[in-house]
Amino acid sequence: CCRCGGRSFELSSWLCCGAMSRVPPSWHGRPRLSPEDVERYSALATSWGPRLLEVARSNEGFEYKGEKNGVQIYIGSSESQKIHLIKGITRARAASETIKRVFIAQDNEAFNHLFSVIDPMFKEGHVIDFFPHDYVFPALPCFGIKWARYSLPGGVLWDRDFLFLEHGSEFTDANGKQIGYGVGQSVELPEYGPLDGMVRGEIFTSGYVFEDVEPGVVQLTYIVQADPKGWIPAWASNLTGSEQAMNVARIRDWLHGLEDAKAKMAKDIAEKLGAPLVEAYIHDRTAARRGTITHTIRTKPGDVVKWIYFVTNGDIRFRVDGLKEGHHDTHVAADVGTIFGQGIAAGGSVSFHWDNSSSWLRTRRVYYCIQLPTGFAIGGVGVMRPSGTSEHAGLVMCS
Q1: Residue 363: how many other CB atoms lie within 10 Å
Q2: Using one digit for the tens of pLDDT, what is the confidence trace for 330-361?
Q3: Would the N or C end of the chain have less CB density within 10 A of its end CB?
């Protein structure tokens, strides 16, 4: 673990290591799972699906705790497991196809983007393997073995990390209703054992279920049961467990923002980029920190690059680097509508920057779509927080 001044305890570990990545270098570039392991883990993860669906559809054994921010919260407990089973249910304006694409996180960037939006306690993650190895986005079923690191309330405790296997799938039930789900549970791999300065927690069968309830509306159900281990007793974990149900509200609000942005940008994208908006979700390649969102694309000298974006709440600075005519640098307000721009690439890359560092109080939300020289366009949403941190995730694909 971290040692500060010769001491070794949780506060020291947090002060030394809280902000830096803790993924060991040895985890990168390791061989992928063998075909035999892929088959074994695929069968194991698939076996968890029926249990998740059963819990999502039945309230037997649950106590209704009320509604908060449009989320119905249920708590389940049993003598055999002291850690409560948490369930949150809400509805969202979104197509099930869009939600499916949101939850497929097949690489490190997509995984970190997605979980940063879902859970405020998430700090970083690493995709150990994703299979089938010939996977083509957004096909289902798919499987992954992943590692995630979380902080705990209070700020002075050792971080908790989890190693888990996950599985995503979809099907049509007997009534013709489309249902999708993602389920995960802890696994043990000797080469990915507990890390120094962290406590390895355990995830029991947990995940998300989404199902169509009417055209354009889905019901989202989030189920989680996780033991943070360490010295924290079960009763203390259960005190804040119900807050985990609110993760489904963050997903709902994120989906609503994406749907609104697509509706707002569709016409301009079609007219100014010459690319009709299609129902497709991709993960962007944005790097965000200290209130600034940066998105870099690869180009060739002379390539024409086009972009569209808008700000929902407040003023920001926007800059583009790597263009032949210098760079675009402008101050943009929320009430000016959709902004369109284009330029000629000077070299091998063009970088887009949205800067909120001048704001101490307000979070800024930016939706954008960038057209690559190949005619393929990608988009994303970035949340710039005045505290100096930013969140971001993919939005739409244009063809």
Answers
A1: 17
A2: 777 666 778 888 889 998 888 888 887 776 66
A3: C
| 84 three-class SS | coil
Asked if 22 and 197 count as a contact pair (C-beta separation under 8 A), the reply is: yes
For strands 85-93 and 142-150, give the pairing.
unpaired
To 10 degrees, what angle do helices 108-118 and 247-268 make? 110
pTM for the model stands at 0.75
Its sign, for the CA torsion 95, 276, 308, 302, is positive
pLDDT band at 368 (very low <50, low <70, confident <90, very high): confident
Contact between residue 380 and residue 393 where contact means Cβ atoms under 8 Å apart: yes
CA distance to 45, 69, 92, per residue, from 245 (Å) = 23, 11, 15
Residue that has been written with the tokens 């920190």 in this structure? 289
Euclidean distance between CA atoms 210 and 212, whole angstroms? 7
**Cα distance between residue 379 and residue 161, in whole Å:** 31
Higher pLDDT, 236 or 71: 71
Give the Cα separation of 58 and 87 in Å (integer).
Answer: 11
End-to-end CA distance of the chain: 49
Looking at this protein, which amino acid is placed at residue 292? T
What type of residue is 114?
A: L
Question: pLDDT at position 288, please?
Answer: 35
Helix (H) or strand (E) segment spanning residue 67: strand 62-68
What pLDDT sits at residue 325? 76
Q: Which two tokens stand for residue 209?
A: 């279920």
Q: In the numeric block, which tokens belong to residue 108? A: 């490190």
Nearest 5°: phi and psi at 248?
-70, -25
Spatial neighbors of 346 by CB under 8 A, at least 6 apart, are 301, 322, 323, 324
Query: Cα dihedral sign for 97, 103, 109, 114?
Result: positive
Per-residue pLDDT tens digits for 27-68: 988 889 999 999 999 999 999 999 999 999 999 989 999 999
